[in-house]
Structure formats: structure tokens, C-alpha cells
Amino acid sequence: MAEEVLLIEKSDGIATLTLNRPKSMNALSTQLRRALAAAFADLTDDPQTQVVILTGAGERAFCAGLDLKELAGEAEPAQDAGDAPAGDADPVRVMDAFDRPIIGAINGVAITGGFEIALACDVLIGSTAARFSDTHARVGIMPGWGLSQRLSRVVGIYRAKELSLTGNFLSAERAEQWGLLNRVVPPQALMESCRALAKDMISCQPGMVPAYKDVIDRGFALSFGEGRGVERATNRAHMSEVTPERIAAARQQVQARGREQSG
């Protein structure tokens, strides 16, 4: 029996998706792209899943990008890859449409298409083995999953141009300094750190995390003034549903959490 190219594990409101082609550095074959897109589509309809953690199998790679052997005709797509064009399996588009947080657990290299998958996450935590590279210019393929626009908004246009116009690697330490990685942890602590962060998100008020993520994402795509308008409109609509009793209960929870974290 062929091994699954995408592993899915669910527990405690967290769905962990593992790109599972370690011998190919988790390269995005047609089969894997479709499996990843289908998984996010299914999770959208799963109310039990509140946070997703996305990572790669093995120690070398988060994801090495598109499967270049398959693109070059040196390897045939898997039999169950389906007949639809590969472009129909755009995992980034489905990730963008997912309304709950996606934590990227970057366990190794994230190259080109893998870099784009990482940038589609909401939070990135990397192990010390994490490295990033945009090789679109070296391979001769223009990006189509957002890298040319997202990267510059995260690290700044000059740093983005340095990476994309050279194809050079960015280390985990430098990625954290540039604001691409939220933090860097030892490899053995990566998944534990991601799960702890996911549990912190789940502990917030019900429904607030998806709504807050939506406001941030919508505003980020606009000018600052337009983004403020989105925030004010959302605030007015939300405050009409808030009661003094609800605020009092939440205040006690926040104070207790503050005492716990400062102890």
C-alpha cells in the first residue's frame, strides 16, 4: 500500500498536517498539492478544529517546493492524482480562505513553493534547522502563490529583492531577526512549542480568534486609513452584542491569566 503523502492528526481542537514525502524533501507533487487543498477544504467544515499546525516529515525539509522531476516529465504523477489540471490544486488559495489560525512549524528548508506555503501561514515557528530560499529566478518560473507580494510586506522590499533576485538561503536566525519567524527553537522543541501556542489561541473567547484574524487580514490588504475603517466598522457591529456581564467574566479570566504568566 502506498504511503499517504499528507498525514492528518486531530486532537484537542488542533489539526496537525504533515507533508509526508521525506525522501523527496516533501516536494509538492500534484498528488500532495491536491491532498493539501482538499484537507484545508475539509477542515473548513470541521467545527472541532480551531487551529491548524502545518509541518513537514523528516529532519531535512519543511517543503522543497514544486516537484521539479514531475514538472520536467522525469516522474509520472501518482495514479490517484486525478485528471484535473494541477493548477486547480492551489493549496495557498485554500489556506487563504481558511478562517482559523495556521501555525507553520518550519522543521527544515522551505524552498520556493514551500516558501510560499510557509508565507500563507499566520504564524511561523522555526527550528534551528529552518532555512528559506526563493529559487523562482534560478528555475525560470514566475511565482503564482503570492511570494513576490507577501515576502516584501513581511521583511521589507529591499530584503525581499535580495532573496528573490539571488536565490540565496536565509538562515533561521536571520529570518527571526528580519521578522519572518516569530521565534526559533531547538528541533526537539518545535512541535511542543507550536502546540502550546495553539492552545493559547484556543483559550481565547469563543469565536474571537477567527473574527480577529479576519480583521487583521482584511486591513493588511488595504491602506492604513482603509484598514482603520474596517476595524471601526467591525468594532461597532461587535460591541452591539457585548454585555457588561460578559466583560466582567472575561476581565476575571484575563487577570487570572496575567497573574499566572507573571508568577
**What is the CATH topology descriptor of the largest domain?**
2-enoyl-CoA Hydratase, Chain A, domain 1
Q: Report the end-to-end length measured between terminal Cα atoms.
A: 52 Å
Shape-level CATH architecture of the largest domain: Alpha-Beta Complex
**Structure classification:** alpha/beta
Order of helices and strands: EEHEEHHEEHEEHHHEHEHHHH
Number of helices: 12
* CATH evolutionary superfamily of the largest domain: 2-enoyl-CoA Hydratase, Chain A, domain 1
Strand proportion? 15-25%
Given as residue ranges, the uncertain stretches (5+ residues, pLDDT < 50) are 81-87
Described by strand count, sense and barrel closure, the largest sheet is: 6 strands, mixed
Number of distinct beta strands:
10
